Amino acid sequence: MKRQKVTRTDVLFLSISVFIVVCAWIGFNIYHSWVTTTITPELQQQIIPIEASFDTQTINALRSRQELQALMDADQRAVAVTPTAVPQPNNIQPTFSFSQPNTTVSPLPTIATSPAPTAEQQPIEVEQPSEDEQTFETIQGQ
Questions:
Q1: How much of the chain, in percent, has pLDDT values that exceed 90?
Q2: 26-70: pLDDT as tens digits
Q3: Positive or negative, the Cα torsion across 59, 64, 68, 73?
Q4: Is residue 24 domain-resident?
Q5: Domain count within the chain
Q6: What is the pLDDT of residue 110?
Q7: Is residue 88, in this structure, part of any structural domain at all?
Q8: Does position 137 have pLDDT exceeding 60, yes or no?
Q9: Is 128 among the domain residues?
Q10: Which residues contact 39 (CB under 8 A, 6 or more apart)?
Q11: Is the pLDDT of residue 75 over 90?
């Protein structure tokens, strides 16, 4: 096979085709954004420009108002407040009651009984077969 050379007309055709596709793409994107973009009435209200003139009487009234001091000023924080002691009655005596366990001391060693076994330590009870099961086993064994 013989390779064909790219001619000047092929390059011109390709560049014009790419230019048309790019222009169509841009045009459709502009049309799409123009059709689909909407501004809600709330947003329209918010974007109304602010008037350039201000109410100077209100600004002067704000400047001339009295300055109030906070309740907890720096001078008041420096004063130390000492709490007063609450008197305690002196006649209260603590009461303790001890109960002595009933124990007997013997010179001979005694055997202590072990505590009752827990559920894990108790022996497993095996169920004895019934008479019918015993009869069935004896018949099978013969």
A1: 18
A2: 999 999 988 887 888 888 888 888 877 888 888 888 888 877 777
A3: positive
A4: yes
A5: 1
A6: 58
A7: no
A8: yes
A9: no
A10: 47
A11: no
pLDDT computed for residue 52 by the predictor: 79
Please, what is the Cα angle at 30 between 39 and 13, to 5 degrees? 175
CB 137 within 8 A of CB 129: yes
One-letter identity of residue 129: P
pTM for the structure as a whole: 0.29
How far apart, in Å, are the Cα atoms of 91 and each of 84, 85, 95, 105, 131? 21, 18, 12, 41, 80
Q: Using alpha carbons, list the distances in angstroms from residue 14 to 18, 20, 60, 91.
A: 6, 10, 72, 112
Section 62-88 average pLDDT = 68
- Per residue, what are the HEC states of the chain? CCCCCCCHHHHHHHHHHHHHHHHHHHHHHHHHHHHHCCCCHHHHHHCCCCCCCCCHHHHHHHHCCCCCCCCCCHHHHHCCCCCCCCCCCCCCCCCCCCCCCCCCCCCCCCCCCCCCCCCCCCCCCCCCCCHHHHHHHHHHHC
Identify whether 36 is part of a domain: yes
Question: Which structural domain, as residue segments, surrounds residue 4?
Answer: 1-40
